[in-house]
Design goal:
The chain is an alpha/beta fold and 242 residues long. It starts with a strand and ends with a strand. The chain folds into 2 domains: 3-54, no CATH class; 59-240, no CATH class. The protein has helices at residues 29-37, 73-86, 91-103, 144-153, 158-173, 224-233; strands at residues 3-12, 15-25, 45-52, 57-61, 65-69, 116-119, 139-141, 177-181, 190-194, 198-203, 214-219, 236-240. It is built from 6 helices and 12 strands.
């Protein structure tokens, strides 16, 4: 059955404020478009993209999920660093990534739409455009409603649904590890993910009210071209979470 990629991006005064995507059949296109258009609370521009997919990769299960709650941002970031090291990231490279996210990953010091791609050996940034970053798209769940219900029933938030799908696709495409926390000032939970540790939600990775956040993907320099092509162009459907 032919599948469509449906992607929505909303901005306000030039700043990205909301984004979402789905992979659906043609029969669900209209309802999906209406759902995505309702997501942004404030905006002055919405871009909606509908694309017919030629091929779709399929993955049986996502990365496993766990959660850790710490007493302070310092303790949470110390744990994040330890998890990166357990994932094979040198400690000094992990520290560099955490420092970068805390200051703002854009070259101008603010947030950026996509993710930083960092060389695991040197810590050098590899993304072709440091203002745009690299964006992981064309990924969804085979039965999104079922997985959403299971994730919420297990005590996680709906945010976990999309973040877990993204992290799983990154690992599928060859990311050695990643670290992320949101630029939403009111959302202080982030995560570290890798094939070794799974997807580990960590609270609080920043102070409430802090508007800075982003993602860093760790890869080997020689894998850059294939990794970017995979996360940005190849479509992936995930059957279940674990």
């Amino acid at each position: 059955m032919p599948l469509l990629s449906v992607r929505m991006r909303a901005s306000l005064e030039g700043r990205h404020v909301s984004g979402a995507e789905r992979i659906v059949t043609e029969g669900k296109l209209q309802d999906t478009v209406l759902e995505l258009l309702k997501r942004p609370r404030r905006f002055d521009n919405i871009v909606l993209t509908v694309e017919r997919l030629v091929s779709v990769d399929r993955l049986e299960t996502s990365l496993p999920v766990t959660s850790k709650t710490l007493k302070s941002v310092k303790e949470a970031r110390d744990l994040a660093l330890d998890l990166l090291v357990r994932s094979g990231i040198p400690r000094e490279i992990g520290l560099k990534a955490i420092d970068l996210l805390s200051k703002g990953p854009s070259p101008s010091g603010g947030v950026m739409r996509g993710a930083v791609v960092m060389d695991v050996e040197s810590g050098e940034r590899l993304e072709p455009d440091m203002y745009r970053g690299v964006r992981t798209v064309r990924v969804d769940w085979e039965d999104r409603d079922r997985v959403r219900e299971e994730i919420v029933r297990a005590g996680y938030t709906e945010r976990t649904l999309d973040a877990l799908a993204i992290a799983t696709k990154n690992a599928y495409c060859g990311a050695l590890a990643e670290i992320c926390w949101s630029d939403d000032p009111d959302y202080v939970t982030g995560y570290v993910a890798s094939p070794q540790i799974g997807y580990v939600r960590i609270t609080p990775l920043k102070e409430r009210g802090d508007p800075i956040g982003g993602r860093v993907y760790f890869i080997r320099r020689e894998d850059l071209e294939g990794f970017v092509e995979c996360v940005e162009r190849r479509a992936l459907i995930i059957k279940s979470w674990r």
